[in-house]
Write a structure and sequence with these properties.
Layout: E1 29-41, E2 46-57, E3 64-67, E4 72-79, E5 82-83, E6 85-89, E7 92-96, E8 106-115, E9 120-122, E10 125-132, E11 135-139, E12 159-168, E13 172-175, E14 178-184, E15 188-199, E16 206-209, E17 212-215, E18 223-227, H1 232-238, H2 242-253, E19 261-266, E20 274-276, E21 279-283, H3 294-302, E22 311-312, H4 319-335, H5 341-353, H6 372-389, H7 391-404, E23 409-410, H8 412-420, H9 428-436
Helix pairs in contact: 2-3, 3-4, 4-6, 5-6, 6-7, 6-9
Length: 447
Amino acid sequence: MTPPVPLGATPGADRSTDPYLPEHGNGGYRVLHYDLDLDYRIVSNRLAGRAVVTARAVQPLSRFTLDLAARLQVKDVRVDGRPAKFEHRAGKLRIKPERPIGYGATIRTEIRYSGKPGPVTGRWGDIGWDELSDGVLVASQPNGSPSWFPCNDRPGDKASFLVTFTAPSPYTVLVTGDLVSKRRGAGSTTWVYEREEPTAPYLMSVQIGRYEMIDLAAGGVPQRAAITPRVRGVVKHDLGRHGEIMDVLERLFGPYPFKEYVLVVADDDLDDPVEAQGMAVFGRNHLDGRRTHERLVVHELAHQWFGNSLTVADWRHIWLNEGFATYAEWLWSGASGGPSTNAHASGWHAWLAAHPANVVVADPGVDRMFDPLVYKRGALTLHALRAKIGEQAFFALLRSWVAEHRHQTVTTTLFREHAARYATGSLDELFAAWLDRPALPPLPRIL
């Protein structure tokens, strides 16, 4: 084995800039592109990988780090084609190249690794690579990406991806990206997916199962579902309005930001659906023939605009993902003949009033970042903003927010500055009341 990396790190080169997950993410560089070539054996849960990570140094570097789960064994590391010293422990791959790297230089790091992948275990349970009863599901929010590939695991470091994935031929392999090619060999099939749009590592996903693909809508954005025979009888009803949902969200938020959308229905029950870039993953329990979970279909689709195209710079700003996707549920409800946004706002305001007001939405803390309060009060913040500036200005604000920051990272401060352009008066008190203070403000109402 290559000797461990000597002590004496480049200052800041292995430190995360995310205050919520300081053990994930690395400083000193920005990733430009990931090229992953993976071979997976389902029965033995064995993954063999070659990852080429192309990055640009944002400071001089004598060494740098990547995130990779300890259960995966690193066999070889090369930097710009030359063997590099490395040490892999506690989820960090520490790399010392043969020569120091200058500011602005492009770094091409090749890592060969293998092992039995599994989820990252932490405060949110098991996150990342997860074996199903017959296949694989990968849901990496917020810190599960190192469970299957070496990366700079922070949401603000977005990059393009090329993923070549070989698996047994009876299985369909779905990777977040556009399918470039599919080659069948002796007992296995190699799938090649390209994700051109800048993508956060947590939004990359792999889904493996005995899936059949069906179309969800005709014309417009290609919308498909990957399903198993178990849900074939109810999918047409439960997802029958998907094309209408897409049309409504495009009208409200602007053009869908990716080339296609794939909704995967895994052949297992899941607690909650999860979004990936251009994809959402549901459990079979989310389809029941009664559209019980249609609001979740809307929520995950809305994340393609809010969370995926516009990605938070760090996890403090998560209300920009979840508050917006929750408000999209309320908007669809009103547009489709269900309860109005006012009705949803009233109901959830009463719910919030019955619970302790002990979270600051703009910075909820790592233990509360997925708290329902952040979701619902984040949505109410948008409702209050809409009531304050009026219908026309509000939806113009949303569409320009999406358009101007397409495939970039965003923060709460950036949104406040953007919203100010659409108001005739100051919005400082509105945002302070809803985002910066825990006390619940009075209920806003759209007239």
